[in-house]
Amino acid sequence: MKKFFVPVAALLLVLVPVFFGFVPQLVEFTLNRVAVSTSRGVPPQARELHEALEIVDLHADSLLWGRDLLEKGSRGHADVPRLIQGNVALEVFTAVTKTPRGLNYERNEDNSDNIFWLALAQRWPPGTWNSMTRRALYLAKRFERTAASSNGKLVPIRTAQDLASYLKQRKENRGITAGLLGIEGAQALDGKIENLEWLFQAGYRYMSLTHFFDDEFAGSSAGVNKGGLTPLGHELVRQMNARGMIIDLAHTSPQTIRDVLVESKGPVISSHGGLQGNCNNRRNLSDDEARGIARSGGIIGIGFWPTAVCGRDVRAIARAIRYAVQVVGIEHVGLGSDFDGSVTVPFDTAHLSELTGALLQEGFSAAEIRAVMGDNALRFFSENLPKQ
Q: Domains plus CATH for the chain?
């Protein structure tokens, strides 16, 4: 027995530090990549315009990976120093609470849980291991601690008043950025609508109804049944409307989109993705779905990864934005990068000026670029966040 125990114990002494110390970093390094740049640099005209913008990105999963977001990272896409370097005024940090094994855009069951292993490797509290709600609350606390330790460089936004005060401050100090919390998938409620209040009080201001699988509330574009709102889902829409919590239709099925556009009394968004008319796949919106979101008064965030835009370079993103503008109008289009969302993108947040340059090359005017890069989203949040 002793002969067996000693080598096993020795092996564990090696493997446990590797699991807790290196696995999260290795996983992120593998999944959150920046493509080899083919950019020839950003022209002075584009750089000057970029520095004058108020940039808003509607979707980044940076909280998930456990990096110190106050330090400039050597992996991944976004952190506070790179947001400031890229002149990002507001980043939406989203909570990912569950993803399925073998994740794909066509069909996923809900009976596996990749985030459990990531939570274990990052030593999240035991209460988070089997509760999606507690995972979301933990990530909100992670965001709060980061903001509190940032010496004012990361400003948390919960209300329209917060946003107005911050933008006034930023006129005097461009060396700051801000963060708003969102949730990717209503599985974060653990099937209980009453948990919505906990998430709202923790600072979450929008939530998509599904992620990569069908849940108790709605069908996903990548789920098994891909149905619409369930009876519980209809109630969830009403409860989110009552709180002024914004509904995100990213990842939802066509029937869910139709149901929400009828049920919701407030504007809705699609935080990150593309349009099928430009890049035809199940994940992206049809032109009619995009027009429905626009008619609600919402915003469509164009993603930066190949499935969203059918290309791997910055010009593909600019072309996808051009197509969306042609379909829904300039005032309803924004940025939805999916930074740190297990995707490969052409640049990280520090190099967003490449997109400004590509939009100029695509023929956008300075006023149109200001609208898409942030003014549309700032207007939307100013009008739709809780007032105070």
A: 32-384 (3.20.20.140)
